[in-house]
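Model: Ready when you are.
Researcher: Fold this.
Model:
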Amino acid sequence: MDERLDLLNHRQVANLTWDDAPYVAKAIVACIRGKSIANPVYLNNVSMVHMQGTGINVYVLGEDWLKIVPYLADGTLNPNIVAYPIIGGDPKLDISTIDLQDLTLYQRVVGMLRGLFPTRFPTSKI
């Protein structure tokens, strides 16, 4: 947990964990598909990435985001390079069900996140 920050979304900001993967994956898939945006944010000298859109409001610490960026940059999660079919063929994804409609990409992102962040609970750096 980063005690320099107040609660964001009713939660103390901490490093990502295994259990955060589904929520963060949903936000990343929404960004990839153009349904939300990601912006850098600095609060109390803490860097973060804020992903937001309809139904999406996720903060990721900058140090965690730096672990995710290589997968976004190398094309591993790019639907234009690796085909990820949208179930039902509906190009109008609904963010609330993006984990079901865009199942292949969503599962790939969850797997990547759980590999990067295998810890089950937030841990102190002390």
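Researcher: Now this one.
Model:
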Amino acid sequence: MKALVITDGTESIQSIALLIKESLESFSVKICSAQDFQGTDLLAAGVFFIGCEKSSPSSFAFLEEMLNHINLASRKCGIFSSKEKTIKYLHNILKSCEADTFELLTPENSNIKKTDIKKWLKPFLK
């Protein structure tokens, strides 16, 4: 199965994206920044993940627009950030596409462990 991880490209979010990729051993995982995101990448993925540090990064404009016009009700989406306000933003941009979301709020300025990621990923493996 294919998985896609879309990020804002910040260092902290990229490090979580890499842990997701390492933890999804039976998946073919592609990590891309939102500015390099292409809609066909999302359509090919069985599950997808979106993470950013701050709400409404300019690089998410195309992604927001696409999610507004597509139905992903059969897909699971993981959202992640270190800020609760950003998690709310990510939930909002996913509302209209109806993807089933699972959130991961990481403590700011702390090291998240692979075991934390694996625990969070369990619903995606069912």
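Researcher: Key takeaway?
Model: The mean pLDDT is 93.
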